[in-house]
Amino acid sequence: MAYSNKVVDHFNNPRNMGSFKKDEEGVGTGMVGAPECGDVMKLQIKVQGDTIVDAKFKTFGCGSAIASSSLATEWLKGKTIEEAHQIKNTDIVQELNLPPVKIHCSVLAEDAIKAALADYQKKAGSK
Amino acid sequence: MKLPIFMDNHSTTPMDPRVLDAMLPYFVEKFGNAASRNHAFGWEAEEAVEQARKQIAKLIEADPKEIVFTSGATESDNLALKGVVEMYKEKGTHIITSSTEHRAVLDTAKSLEAKGLATVTYLPVDKQGRVNPEDVRAAITPKTILISVMLANNEIGTINPVSAIGKIAKEKGILFHCDATQGVGKIPVDVQAMGIDLMSFSAHKIYGPKGVGALYVRKKSPRVRIVAQMDGGGHERGMRSGTLPVPLIVGFGKACELCELEMPAESARLAKMRDRLQAGIMAALEESYLNGHPTERLAGNLNISFAYVEGESLLMGMKDIALSSGSACTSATLEPSYVLRALGVGVELAHSSIRFGLGRFNTDEEIDYTIKKVIEIVSKLREMSPLYEMAKEGVDLKSVQWAAH
Questions:
Q1: CA B181 to chain centre
Q2: How far apart are the CA of A68 and the nearest CA of chain B, in angstroms?
Q3: Does B187 share its domain with B323?
Q4: Which ipTM value was assigned to this complex?
Q5: B314 → chain A, closest CA residue
């Protein structure tokens, strides 16, 4: 299968690869997927006020899964919580030109975003 | 060194230039139909086909008359299983095969089951991928008409104890078919000593052309009979109709001759390169696991799982080396390798497997380059892997509640 140039670019030069400490102030962590399915994404956001000031990811999975999560972190930075909720998997499919068999990678990335936001909101609410 | 490197020689092989040279006269100049009995064009073609038949038979210790040409090993497997089931249906309908066979055997068996023409026992394999001959014996029923077990596996290179299985088949008077596509030309094959009655193999796996293969069909003790699966001119002693592709057959013959001449030197060279590749990679990368048998294995085969990284991303990171993976992402079925699963390899590690297939034209320099690249990409992807991070933090990945999707 041929990969789009954007997938190859994200795969070769992943943006924001890494981790925050989970218990750090303002950090929300989302972990989705399962090893037996062949992909696991960990996506983290760092929030100040209402704005996501930084984001990081680590992904076990194919090139398209890595590219989807890398792109997600790029998009998250600078967005408000409200705006981050609006990111849809179809936006990722379009941007990366993913073929039908790789759509689940974008779904997983959207799930990871939602999970990170939920984790942040849960932590913020419990204070 | 030229990039990209081809290290996927189980999928196919480049044709040996000496094979091409042998084939060339048979396209334009000597184009006759080998079945034309009444003129020189036909005689010339027939002579070339018979010469090739001898070369092929010699490699497997068969009689030239026992070679039936087909379009490739898939057709040979189909012809063997369907042809035997149809011919011997009065005698019985039970087939014994193994769970790590090539799809050409497994899917043919399933198709026969689905049509109600046969019942099939799929034997398990051990952790190294070998069929236990005693399991074969235990599976035999009064209705069993055919045992079909492969010589060497296409993913893990494991070599089955074929002679022992052949012996049991003889004892019980049951026909034994062997899919030897990956073994012929790589390891010594002797259909007499191995007790094989039918055997499938193909030219393009042994540096010959694509589009031609053979089914060995034993002529005496016992004389094996099969029902042709294609109607037509009654070529190949009535077992496989269709005009013979003379240039391909000439190439197939030459390829077999070269394999026979060069096998001892070539397999020693490949084993040495493979062992160096294996040692270089596994010494540098923790939690890399060999799949298959440590010694009973094709010289050119190496199959390794790299924990915490996914196979397709590994291949993507090594774009200038042609390899293959058991990851679901690289298969059409979206399931990870059924061969690795049959060995008891966990789904995670099946997703993380890479198959290296060394062949006649690989060089030491390419091995060095591959070792370096594999270490580089596995290390890079592990840095990127949340599973590796968790394992390093001491999290037991099996205790985590994953959300399967």
A1: 4
A2: 13
A3: no
A4: 0.95
A5: A62
Amino acid at B47: E
- For residue B332, give the amino acid letter: A
B221 and B338 in a single domain? The answer is no
Distances (CA, A) of B275 to B237, B265, B267: 45, 16, 12
AA identity, residue B200? S
Report d(CA B80, CA B75) in Å as an integer. Answer: 8
Preceding omega of B264 cis (within 30 degrees of 0):
no
* Strand pairing class (B324-325; B288-290): unpaired
Nearest neighbour of B397 by CB, restricted to A11, A32, A35: A35
Asked whether B243 and B191 are in contact (CB, 8 A), the reply is no
Closest CA to B256 of B209, B192, B194, B199: B209
Inform me whether the C-beta atom of residue B158 falls under 8 Å from chain A C-beta atoms. Answer: no
B332 touches A at CB < 8 Å: no
Instruction: Dump pLDDT digits (tens) for B248-302.
Output: 999 999 999 999 999 999 999 999 999 999 999 999 999 999 999 999 999 999 9
Is B311 contained in some domain? yes
Q: Rounded CA gap, A41 and B324, in Å? A: 24
Is the dihedral angle over the CA atoms B148, B149, B151, B157 positive or is it negative?
Answer: positive
- Write out the H or E segment, with its range, that includes residue A85: helix A81-85
User: Is B405 within the bounds of a domain?
Assistant: no
Domain total of chain A: 1
Q: In terms of pTM, does the model score above 0.80?
A: yes
